[in-house]
Structure formats: structure tokens, C-alpha cells
Amino acid sequence: MHPLAQKDLNYVWHPFTQMQDWAKEEPIVIKSGKGAVLKDQHNRSYLDANASIWTNLHGHRHPAIDKVIQNQLKKIAHSSALGFANEPASLLAEQLVKTANRPALFKDAGSGYKNPKLGKVFFSDDGSTALEVALKLAYEHARRSGKGHRPKFLSIDHAYHGDTIGAVSVGQVDLFHKSFSGLLFSSDKAMSPYCYRCPFNKAKPERADARDYRKCNWECVGKVGQHFEAGQKKKTNYAGFVFEPVVQGVAGMVGQPEGWLKRVATLARQAEVPLIADEVMTGFGRTGSIFASHQEGIQPDFLCLAKGLTGGYLPMAATLTTQAVYENFLGPYDSFKSFFHGHSYTGNQLGASAALASLGLLKKTGSAPGRRKLQQHLKQSLAPLWKSPFVGDIRQSGLVAGIELVEDWRTRKPWPIQKQVGIQICREMAALGVLTRPIGNVIVLMPPYCCSETQVHKMTRALTRAIEKVLGSAHI
């Protein structure tokens, strides 16, 4: 065993990992990367098929991002944001606000309300903290606006919004709620638009021989609306409606049907409930537009960003909100209305510099058309997988794909978790030179934007061969 791998086994405790299983074999130790390719301790090469857990946008060691970090290092790596400002963070805040409010990026929802303008940026460290900031701001804003002593939050079934206490509280992952129930505050749960497993049996799979489904009447939207109606009747309005726009990531890359977000956002606006968009995964072009909310004509009151913010280089997050929220925290020093929240590395100069360079790359001529071309190739490359009886659903939004594996596509029966089907498939893919991580029985493909068509094809081909080896080759 390589010495580095042994040191990892001796000392490191990995996140979301059963360490008893981890110790059974030599771990892959990533030593270097270039573009979409990673190299391990034995100099073996792999394609980074989940963009280093959904963070890397432009590839590893991108020269433009490398250069700005190196230039910033010649000035300063970090200074405190508590009582002091810095150049890169100030410039980044300006760019985020301008990008979020560009009218060309999204159309008004057309529902009789005006989309708010985002004007203030609060920096933090990661997706969980970006959500914590939004929750605290929304909670206190609601209280100071006369919406109850302890206003609650509404979120969507199966939602994951991070693993800090507030983020877990508004997340709707049963496993986390059972584990940490004594630490959490209560939140309400609305129905998820999980079309493949629609309880009203109206979802139409893409298979040509599945034609016996009725037209959808948006019952899932009505279920969300019932919560807003109940809150209004009790005069206990929600402090915020928390959602992942377009795609629910950890739920299994569950794509929302077109129009769902616009409809539920309209209901929230009518009930005067602020919108909290978790764009930690979907932001910065992953689903098509720079921010996924804009694809449905929605501008939230709180926009939470992380992961791809720095192009996958450094941990950094941002929460954007409105002037009205900001002003609710203004007052004399001794009024104690300040926002009492912050981190040691808030507004870090290296992270902000990387983020500015990443935004610049996203706005370059040809960037959006290039992503659209790559997502079309990904769709074409995934299409042959429909032939497998073990592929129940293929869900793709932009350059985000989730392939749900089932015992039989006709019954949609899921594999028992004890079988570890997703883990086995990803292990075989690694042996074929492609790295990704499953969500239960859903295999995730999220290629960096720098991928070639050949590299994307290698990812899908490795998945096909892994399914053949683990589950059988019938009909593939």
C-alpha cells in the first residue's frame, strides 16, 4: 500500500463515509489534476465525473484562475472582514449583485408581482453557512416585520440544504432528522415534484412504450399551496420558503418539471412569504443560466451561493439579499440590531480573487454556447442507457445528470440499500478511469465545463460497462 494511503487510513475521518468499509481497501489519493483529469498516488489517471463533488466549473489548474491567485498572493492572502474591508471581496460583491440583477438573464414571472432587487452580499465559507446566514436573516427580518415571535420555515420533501444545525433543520432528509432530532428546530415539509415517483401516477417516462399516464394537473403545486393557506389562516406567516431551483441535488438529482417553480413562487408571493433559493449546486451555469432561478423568471429574496463560486478552487460562499432586509438591521449602536454572525475567513482575498476570475470566464463570449453544446452531447451519450432494464430514469438539467438504477424499470422497484448498488457501480467506474460518487442508487454525472465530447463519452461508456458488470448486460 502506498504510504500516503496508509496515512489516510491511520489518521483521517472522511465525511459521509462509513469508515469501517473505507478501511477494507487502499483509498484513491488524489495528488494532481489538470483540466478534467485527476491523478492518484500511483500516477493513474481518472476523469473527474462529478466535478470534485459538484464544485469544479472550468477544470483543474485553469491558467486564468491560477494567475489571479498567484497575483493576489503577492499582495496578501487574508485579512479580517470584522471591521475592515478588502479589494477583491468588494469587487466580487459588486459583480455578484450586477450579475444577479441583469434583466437580460431572466424574465419577470408574469404573475402580478415584481421581482425584488438583490443589493447586499454577506460572505461566508460554504453552502451550509450560506444557508445559515439566509435563515438567520430571514428569521430576524420576519420577527422585526411583525410576523410572529417564532416564525417557521417551509421546505421541500427530500431537500438537503447543508449539514449545520439550521441547514439540517430546514432540510428534509429523514436520516439526518433522526440522528440529530434533539438539536433541530421544527420546519414544515411540502411535497417534492419527484415526477418519476409521482404518487398520482401521472409522470411519463421517456420510454416510448410507456403511454398510459394521464395529463398532470400540478397536484404537487397545490400541496405546497396548502401550507401557505394554512399559515395565513393561523396568522403565523413563514419566515421563508426554502428551495433548490430546477434540480434537487442530494434528493437524487430530481429535476423539477418546467413551470413548477414559477407556480409555487407565485403562491409564496401571494402569501407574502420570502423566497430563499439554495443555488449552492445549481448556480454558475450548471443548469443552463448563471442562476437556475432565473430560468423560471424567479428572483428570490435570498440567493445562497457556494461550491462553484470560486470555480472549485477555494471554500467560499455568499448570501445575497435585498435592501429591505438590510435596513431591518440598521440602528444605533446600543440598539443591538446588528447581524451578529460571521466567520474568521469571511471575504477571504484568495477566494474572492478566484471567484472574480471564474465569473469572468462564465461571461466570456462562447461560454454559454459551449456549455449548451456539451450538455446536448451528454444527453446523446446517455441515451443508449435507456435500453437497460436496470435504468429506471435518466434526469438531466444542463450539465447535471442523475441515472436512477432500479431492479426493474417496469415496476420502478428500488434496489435495497444493503445491496450498495450505487457504490458498486462507482467502484467499477473508478477501475475504468472515471470518478464519481452515488446518491444511493442514483449515479451522478456532472462534468466540468472544460470536458471534451470524447471525455463525456468515456464517462457514459464507463457507466454502461459498470452496470453490465455489476447488474448484468441484458438489453444494453
What does this protein structure show overall?
This protein has 476 residues and is α/β, with parallel strands linked by helices. The chain has two domains: 3-61 and 367-471, Aspartate Aminotransferase, domain 1; 76-362, 3-Layer(aba) Sandwich (Aspartate Aminotransferase, domain 2), CATH 3.40.640. The chain is 34% helix and 15% strand. The protein has helices at 3-11, 19-22, 51-54, 63-73, 87-100, 127-144, 165-170, 174-180, 219-233, 260-270, 323-327, 349-362, 367-382, 421-431, 453-471; strands spanning 30-34, 37-40, 45-48, 118-124, 153-156, 188-190, 240-243, 247-248, 254-255, 275-278, 302-305, 317-322, 391-397, 400-408, 413-414, 434-435, 442-445. The strands form four sheets. The protein has a seven-stranded mixed β-sheet, sandwiched between helices. Strands 1-2-3-16 form a four-stranded mixed β-sheet. Strands 13, 14, 15 and 17 form a four-stranded antiparallel β-sheet that branches. A hairpin with a 4-residue loop joins β14 (400-408) and β15 (413-414). It starts with a helix and ends in a 5-residue tail after the last helix. The relative contact order is 0.15. Residues 208-213 have low confidence and may be disordered.
